């Protein structure tokens, strides 16, 4: 098995080599820019790990791995326009640094380039890989639309929220693992088990994201702690708090949600206090652990030596106890 | 050979059947909307004709034909955002009827759906079809970016303009013909000849579009005659006029290009008069005919019975003497 460090280096080098020099520059410079901003690269790393797990050559999976990261960054580029986000990974977003039109069209061509990388797999799995990739891409778009819809409604249940993050976040991790498995000649059944592993891990990962946004260490988190609270983002924590709150807490929550120009730190502290009273952090961690355990059960079920699974398990566990 | 009428009916029915009922509605309603607005459907018709020409079953090419039309409409949906266009085919554009975010994300998922339709071709041509489709899609994006760049510069040569319309318009027609040929088992060489036929035809088609925008019959054209003149769009006609004009005409052209809030009909009539003095319509028609003839030479060169080519030739010729 290849080490995490080796795989990350492979990915980083492959992304570096995939710099575009094509014209027009307005179209390709933003791709080079967003791809150079880094990030955890967890989707391509998982793709390579899945291939490696079944004895496939990670080099044969490298194009698809870069393709998954390219697709992920395309969705970020378009999401940032839709969310009017000024900052991504500490730097200006593409639609701010250039303009919206550039971000739309550069995103479109990133999607083309992602497909071009995907079709480099062997003939015998080409159709299967493209089917997984297409279904995954459609789910991610659906999840983003549902997420935007949730901004306009007060009535989002926990189940609806979990389904949204499944589509928006988890399915891509799952798709990356399934594609990596197919490239590693895992066969359909094992590849689908890996998909289930990824889907549950992805939901757990997003729940951890929700928790960190409120309870993360400001010095390690990398973003403003409390950002979700300030923007009234309907995360698991807020939805669960609204569900569980008694009359008084509900009134206070509503007050802060509807407050115009509240003092930021006061709003964050007040809402966090309500979460604390209701034990929301523990409930979120329970939900996260439920999905993490389910994920690991799928991993256990695979007919592969336990020590080969170790690197995947460790990478998954690291992602769930991370601080940023 | 199938008649034009039969092929158009097949396409229209297949598009009608491909209506989406998936959720969320904000994502899929705009797809159904834009696909129902009609248009010439010339790209899918050409795709089916190409398949038919080489003895392939047009039914086996129907998914790819709808896929090409889906891709084309995705580019229109995104282009309309970038161009801030309020009207498409006489109806509100998607970003006006819904909003920009919906138009971005619905467009993205149309692109996914186009790929999903494309991968329904047979195994033996899957990779080739996807290669043509990916290269085509990248060219269309490049062409759109170059077109937007040309709005910001005064120095566009005729050759640069022809290269831009090749990428933005002609390549997709060419790609549709190549893919249809591959599905019809034409083999690589013939499929590439069909690509050349389409590329030249597509350039001729766009030049005819430029001419119609100035010289079309207002009752048949469907859009405002003179729209390109009003918006100072750098078409073949304007670029050529700026190139050929003597000092006086150049001064008058510059005056109208820089005029703030000119009376529309006066501007249109004045610029058209300059074009007339310089014989620009004839020069544009010469350039169009040069590409049309080149296109037909490629068609001639194909090792297929002449009477089988008749329907393709007639459809091509009809597009070049059209009035809207």
TrEMBL record, chains A, B:
<keyword id="KW-1133">Transmembrane helix</keyword>
<feature type="transmembrane region" description="Helical">
    <location>
        <begin position="45"/>
        <end position="68"/>
    </location>
</feature>
<keyword id="KW-0479">Metal-binding</keyword>
<dbReference type="GO" id="GO:0004659">
    <property type="term" value="F:prenyltransferase activity"/>
</dbReference>
<dbReference type="GO" id="GO:0046872">
    <property type="term" value="F:metal ion binding"/>
</dbReference>
<dbReference type="InterPro" id="IPR033749">
    <property type="entry name" value="Polyprenyl_synt_CS"/>
</dbReference>
<comment type="similarity">
    <text>Belongs to the FPP/GGPP synthase family.</text>
</comment>
<protein>
    <submittedName>
        <fullName>Polyprenyl synthetase family protein</fullName>
    </submittedName>
</protein>
<keyword id="KW-0472">Membrane</keyword>
<dbReference type="GO" id="GO:0008299">
    <property type="term" value="P:isoprenoid biosynthetic process"/>
</dbReference>
<keyword id="KW-0460">Magnesium</keyword>
<dbReference type="Pfam" id="PF00348">
    <property type="entry name" value="polyprenyl_synt"/>
</dbReference>
<dbReference type="InterPro" id="IPR008949">
    <property type="entry name" value="Isoprenoid_synthase_dom_sf"/>
</dbReference>
<dbReference type="InterPro" id="IPR000092">
    <property type="entry name" value="Polyprenyl_synt"/>
</dbReference>
<keyword id="KW-0808">Transferase</keyword>
<keyword id="KW-0812">Transmembrane</keyword>
């Amino acid at each position: 098995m290849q080490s995490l460090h080796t795989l990350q280096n492979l990915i980083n080098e492959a992304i570096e080599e995939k710099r575009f020099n094509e014209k027009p520059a307005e179209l390709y410079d933003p791709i080079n820019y967003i791809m150079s901003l880094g990030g955890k690269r967890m989707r391509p790393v998982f793709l390579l790990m899945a291939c490696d797990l079944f004895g496939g050559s990670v080099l044969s999976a490298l194009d698809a791995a870069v393709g998954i990261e390219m697709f992920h960054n395309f969705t970020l580029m378009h999401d940032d326009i839709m969310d009017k986000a000024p900052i991504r990974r500490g730097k200006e977003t593409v639609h701010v640094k250039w303009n919206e039109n550039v971000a739309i069209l550069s995103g479109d061509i990133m999607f083309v380039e992602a497909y071009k990388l995907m079709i480099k797999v062997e003939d015998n799995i080409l159709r299967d890989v493209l089917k997984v990739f297409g279904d995954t891409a459609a789910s991610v778009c659906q999840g983003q639309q549902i997420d935007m819809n949730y901004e306009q409604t007060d009535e989002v249940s926990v189940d609806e929220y979990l389904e949204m993050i499944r589509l928006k976040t988890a399915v891509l991790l799952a798709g990356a693992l399934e594609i990596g498995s197919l490239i590693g000649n895992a066969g359909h059944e094992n590849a689908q088990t890996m998909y289930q592993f990824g889907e549950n891990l992805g939901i757990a990962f997003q729940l951890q994201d929700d928790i960190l946004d409120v309870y993360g260490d400001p010095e390690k988190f990398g973003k403003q702690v409390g950002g979700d609270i300030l923007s009234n983002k309907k995360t698991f924590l807020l939805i669960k708090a609204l569900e569980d709150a008694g009359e008084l807490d509900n009134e206070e929550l509503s007050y802060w949600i509807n407050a115009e120009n509240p003092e930021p730190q006061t709003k964050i502290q007040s809402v966090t206090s309500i979460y604390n009273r209701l034990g929301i952090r523990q409930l979120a961690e329970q939900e996260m652990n439920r999905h993490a355990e389910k994920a690991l059960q799928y991993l256990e079920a695979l007919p592969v030596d336990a020590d080969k699974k170790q690197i995947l398990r460790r990478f998954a566990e690291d992602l769930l106890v991370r601080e940023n």
